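Section 3.1: Structural characterization of target chains.
Under the original work plan, the team committed to producing a structural model for every single-chain target entering the pipeline before any wet-lab resources were allocated. The record below documents one such target. The sequence was received from the expression subgroup and is listed exactly as submitted; it comprises 289 residues.
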Amino acid sequence: MVADSELAAERDQRRRAFAEVLRRERDTTDLNLDRERVVSDEALAAREAFLAMINHDLRTLVGGIGLNLALLVKDVVVDDERGRRIVKRIDAIERTTARMNRLIDDLLDVVGIQAGKMSVNPIRRDAIAVVRDALVDLAPSASAKGIALSTDFGRSGLKGELLVASFDHDRVLQVLENLVGNAVKFTPSGGRIIVRVEPADDVVRFAVEDTGSGVTDREVPVIFEPFVQGENLSRHGLGLGLYISKRIVEAHGGTIWLDKTSEQGSVFCFTIPRSAAPTAMGAEARPNT
């Protein structure tokens, strides 16, 4: 009886000791979680403050540059060679400020994607029209490099028909400008770029074909990841265009891919469903972090 009593007391003591260990571990875990929440909240607040600074202060500075350039152009006399040289330099500065604005937009888009806050608002509209809009914006840069920029609308183009799909015009325009802009960047003078759009089952298929230097085998698996640029070429920007494009297309319920590539050029394709509902880039569409 005494042995049983001592054994029961020993078991009870072990149970109390074990319960105390568990309590202390829970308290430590709760404390660590509280600290992590504080750190996370502080990081979020710092990020929001940083974004506010980018969106307001940097845009204000870039806008000031553009305004002063516009005023400067009015004072330049272009009747002589000196005036024409000044105008050409002003044009170069304006292109640089446009790239700065594009970089700011890309950084804000990436943060929005990571936070699951970037959304698309599809409306039924003509897919051919958005391609034409993209080429109007990019034709000058292609022409400046001596690159032939053309379109292929398939049967719809021949018949003058609309190719209707549900998509966010500004976002799909952004994807096209990223793809065509990359093609212009990496295609040498004398090359060509063709932008195709055609119906394919229940989607609209876009393709951008160029005669540039192609994508290396090492780059192919990561070409749609952020901060990736062609290693064999000079860097321009942060390599965010394809990453953002992928997220925009996926938010539409579509797919984007590198169809083929070689030393003679590349073909990038993406699809947009003919019918799509507005999609926010929520948890199911967020990139892995």
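The beta strands are 119-120, 123-126, 148-152, 164-167, 192-200, 203-210, 256-262, 265-273, 279-280.
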